[in-house]
Amino acid sequence: MTAAHRFPTFAPSACGRIRALRRDERGSTAAELTLLTPLLILLLLFVVFCGRLADTKLRINDVAHQAARAATLARTPSQATANAQATASAALASAGISCQSLSVSTDTQGLKPGSTVTVTVSCSVGLGDLTSLGVPGSRTFQSSFSSPVDVWRGTSPNAQTGGVP
């Protein structure tokens, strides 16, 4: 064999190039990250969803507490119910929670010193802004809180004499 008929030694064969490409791992990390990105985004949205549910539950508990406390400061059962409703609405607005339906139930037990007032708040919260997760349209949160009526609270002079001064 002459020198003209020999293959050049610096040119790799086709099989050698294919083997070298198979062993080359450059760019594999970027490809894997591209495939995992949608799953990571979905996981992040799920964490946001769970955090939002937990935060809303805590805020509804606080609203029930505030409403019960406001009801114990009233002098009549009807005023206690009105105070609880107004306080719950104001507390929800200040917490940034908009209820699709709000129900505030007040059990005053006569509103006598030493008794307890129980307020139950039920709020249906819309979850439509998290539609990429396919969550249901709303979730109802309910919380109850009981607060004692102060044993040493004073009464108005008209209440003691039956309204006659």
UniProtKB/TrEMBL annotation:
Superkingdom to which the source organism belongs: Bacteria
Protein name: Flp pilus assembly protein TadG
Matches recorded under InterPro entries: TadE-like_dom (IPR012495)
Transmembrane segments: 35-54
A Pfam family hit: TadE
Alphabetical UniProt keywords: Membrane, Transmembrane, Transmembrane helix
Annotated TadE-like domain residues: 27-69
